[in-house]
Amino acid sequence: MRAVHWVRSRQEERELTYWLSLVSYDRHDQSFNNRVYLLYLVIFFSVWVFMTLSMFASGGASLLELLVPGAPARAAAWIELALLGAWSAFCLAGAVRRSPILFSEQDAVLLSQTPVSRRQVVLRWLWMPWLESAIPFCLAAVTLGFSLAETSLPASLGASQVAAYTAFGLRAGLAILPVHLALFSLHWVVGVLRLQRDAVRPWLPWPVLAGGLACGAAVLAPGLPWLPWLEGLVFPLDGNLTVALLAGAALAVTALGLLAGVSPAFSLSRAAQETQEVELLQTAQRYRLNDYAAEIRSRQRMGVSRHPARLPALRGAGALVWKDLVQSRRAWRWADLFQTLSLFTLMLAVPLLPDLNGRLLSAAVWIFLLGKAAVVRLRSDLAAWPLARQLPIAYARFLGFDLLLAVLGGLVAGWAGLVVGAWLAGQPVHAWALLLPGVATAAAGAAAYDVIRRARSSLLLNGSVPEAGASGVLLGLLLAGLPLLLSAALPGATGLGLSCLAGLLLAALALGLAIRAYRNVDAPRWPSG
């Protein structure tokens, strides 16, 4: 077990070192100045967290009074229960499909093939993930405690009342920790039960679902005698903190006992097979290896259980459109929905904003987001450089069809935003609707040009594709923004017509620059001077 502890402690040290590196603290430096800096960090972040949560508490107090008038403490308790319930449902749904205990590839080699105690491995692996999961709930509980203090204490807090204000938050934060530990351990119990040596339990999700529904019905049913006790367990602000902590500790110990009881037969090898790629993905995201993380996510989505895509009879460059559709469907994430809503909302604001400066700012952000989205598929194709370069497709058609879906998606979102904004403002659709095709194409072409001009065939062979940089953003804002500025300077039908013509010409210029850069990717670049 000492070897297991040594392996896990090194992992925890690396994780701690990563988080400390974000604030430029070196824990190996034992100098006096470094220790003073650590004290400064503790004081700074303590004050910063206190002030931030206090700021949120002012709005939270109004929310508590709105939810349950006259009983803000009960409203806070039910918010905590709702958060814990939603999080538990999500974790249990994951535990019946994949091991909640993450092991790296090195763990699979070092632990799975050794006769180490499975119980000790599970219990040793528990604490760091639990702490990372508990921090958001603790902060939410402290914020609710501060919100309750806003409703209980005078509006102007003196120095003598700051301690009472802080005590509200600390009591709420301390009480949630054992309850969260109990629920977290139960999630691991379900995951460990599913991976018992060679046993296969396809029926396990059904009792878990039944138990979850029963718990939800027991909590939501009105008039039950244990509801006040449950409210006091998760949010004890009536002087019963000791009782709540003892009850929460008893639940946590019971859950840990169950986890220890089902752990001896836990299959480390099967857990490692399920989670080593997940652990690799988290590591890539932590160190900002975005392209590698995207590749891992795509590989996870396109597993052996996927049915093959039904490819239609599209010839030539049209096959790129179908490829982009398949990739977009299989690699879809919630971030894509957020990006589409952002493009919609930015154009929605244009008819509602009273001044030109606000409209231009909204349009500038829209151009930036569209340019960033337009090169996603292009960069994935460039990462397969040997294949992409040998396609019997003309350079202009290759780039045009590769950017087509992103431009059309941005146009649909932008037009929809302008139509809804005009309806809300009670005005005709804004004239910018005619300018959007040229603007969107220019933004996409400028971003594509910036990516391609900085690409090198020697790096593309290794899958290293540059991202759109600051120069691409500036070029996109210049080419796509000029028609908008021209339409503002020249009002009327004549000005709108000239602006549309200028937008199309600038879009053709941007695409021409991108096509020329793509044609010259393999050309030798002589060093200057």
What does the model show?
The protein has 529 residues and is an all-alpha fold. The protein folds into 2 domains: 2-283, no CATH class; 318-519, no CATH class. The protein contains 21 helices and no strands. The protein has helices spanning 2-21, 32-67, 72-95, 105-110, 118-152, 159-194, 205-220, 227-234, 241-262, 268-286, 290-301, 318-330, 334-352, 356-374, 376-383, 385-389, 395-425, 432-453, 457-460, 470-489, 492-519. Helix 17 packs antiparallel against helix 21 (492-519) and helix 18 runs antiparallel to helix 20 (470-489). The chain is globular.
Topology (SSEs and partners):
Layout: H1 2-21, H2 32-67, H3 72-95, H4 105-110, H5 118-152, H6 159-194, H7 205-220, H8 227-234, H9 241-262, H10 268-286, H11 290-301, H12 318-330, H13 334-352, H14 356-374, H15 376-383, H16 385-389, H17 395-425, H18 432-453, H19 457-460, H20 470-489, H21 492-519
Please report the distance between the alpha carbons of the first and last residues. 63 Å
Largest sheet data:
none
Please state roughly what percent of the residues sit in beta strands, choosing from under 5%, 5-15%, 15-25%, 25-35%, 35-45% or over 45%.
under 5%
| Record field, number of beta strands | 0
- Our Rg estimate from Cα atoms comes to 29 Å
Output the number of helix runs: 21
**Ranges with pLDDT <50 over ≥5 residues?**
none
How would you spell out the order of helices and strands? Answer: HHHHHHHHHHHHHHHHHHHHH
Portion of residues in helices?
over 70%
Overall shape: globular
Q: Mean pLDDT, as a whole number?
A: 79
Number of domains: 2
Structural class: mainly alpha
